[in-house]
Write a structure and sequence with these properties.
- This protein is α/β, with parallel strands linked by helices.
- Helices cover 29% and strands 16% of the residues.
- The chain has twelve helices and 15 strands.
- It has an eight-stranded mixed β-sheet with strand order 9-6-10-2-11-13-3-14. A three-stranded mixed β-sheet has the order 12-4-15.
- Helix 5 packs parallel to helix 11.
- The protein starts with a helix and ends with a helix.
Length: 344
């Protein structure tokens, strides 16, 4: 069964057309006073999980840790994805558009992204991918290179969940291996306190609630309550590790954003930069998003409609970047100020 899974995935990856998508101009409207006065952040960690609706996570007995974070810190109660399936939502988060992507195949997007913005602004960044075969890898799928509870032949890394790797500027970057790294690097960086300003943290398919329902995958790597419970424990371990890192105790502002790519329904539900008439950007469902800060709001529920485009705009503002990418510059896409404003 596992060999069939691998074969089908490799066929999809090999057959996919590696297209170059045209560059649309990045937003260049004058920033508002709110944008200019958005609090500056030293570190932002975005931890992205998979394929669960808000109703399956917050206040669910299967996700006690994420629920506790939502109650204790900041909960964006009306946060929406951009599309189905997974990949366009990761691209939207780091690029401000889905660029017409309606699949999980490899693409080559010739357009600005957070990576190019960060390069221009001198902001350090890394995309930490659990089970990445090696730093800078361009593999579409891979097994876990480190010992774990997973079978050795189970493919649990998926490039479609990176976001950054779909952009040609990243794929061609001679320093790619310093930006696209594994969890071994994450643990080392957190321990030393040498984490970059921006960290996109992507668990593997068993730990991000996506699941692998074929081969000899363990019961809690399949769809269902056990999968959510496994993912919830994994989120807690990562959040605890970040909060134990030296960077959390430093004077600068730091935030951990726990979010999802899309819900697991087929319907289109979205807001804030999405368009019901655009199949690639019609809405990807109501998803849980929690903002944990080292000196920001506590026990706050923010009902403002947000999307991944809102989060992208927030990241830009937090690092002093006010030229927003694509839909992050749309009317109605606002920064998540209430959840990031320091209170002490």
């Amino acid at each position: 069964m596992q060999s069939r899974f691998l074969a089908s995935r490799l066929v999809i990856a090999a057959a996919a057309l590696l297209v170059t998508l045209g560059t649309a101009p990045a937003g260049n409207a004058a920033p508002s006073a709110a944008d200019l006065h958005f609090p500056r952040y030293a570190h932002i960690f975005v931890l992205m999980d998979e394929n669960k609706s808000d109703g399956e996570i917050v206040n669910s007995p299967d996700a006690p840790a994420i629920t506790a974070f939502a109650h204790a810190y900041g909960y964006a109660s009306r946060f929406y994805a951009e599309s189905h399936p997974s990949e366009p939502n990761y691209v939207a988060l780091v690029g401000g558009s889905t660029y017409g992507i309606v699949d999980d195949a490899p693409h080559a997007i010739d357009a600005p992204s957070l990576a190019t913005q960060f390069a221009g602004a001198g902001v350090s960044w890394k995309n930490y991918n659990e089970s990445l075969p090696k730093a800078g890898s361009l593999a579409a799928y891979a097994t876990d290179p480190h010992p774990s509870d997973l079978p050795a032949d189970l493919y649990v890394y998926a490039a479609k969940h990176s976001g950054f790797i779909e952009f040609t500027s990243v794929r061609r970057d001679p320093n790619r291996a310093g930006h696209i790294v594994g969890f071994d690097r994450l643990h080392a960086d957190l321990h030393s306190g040498a984490v970059p300003a921006f960290s996109l943290i992507i668990p593997n398919l068993c730990n991000d609630m996506h699941g692998v329902g074929e081969g000899d995958s363990p019961p809690d790597c399949r769809n269902g309550h056990l999968l959510i419970r496994r993912g919830d424990r994994h989120v807690k371990s990562l959040v605890d590790e970040i909060m134990a890192s030296p960077v959390w105790k430093q004077p600068g502002n730091a935030a951990i954003v726990v979010t999802f790519d899309e819900d697991d329904a087929d319907g289109a539900q979205g807001c804030c930069g999405t368009n019901p008439k655009d199949p690639a950007n019609a809405g990807g469902g109501h998803i849980s998003t929690i903002v944990i800060t080292n000196r920001g709001p506590r026990a706050v529920v923010d009902p403002t409609p947000y999307s991944h485009y809102s989060l992208l705009r927030t990241i830009d503002d937090a690092f002093g970047i006010h030229r927003y990418l694509q839909h992050a510059n749309d009317a109605g896409v606002v920064p998540m100020t209430r959840l990031f404003a320091p209170t002490r």
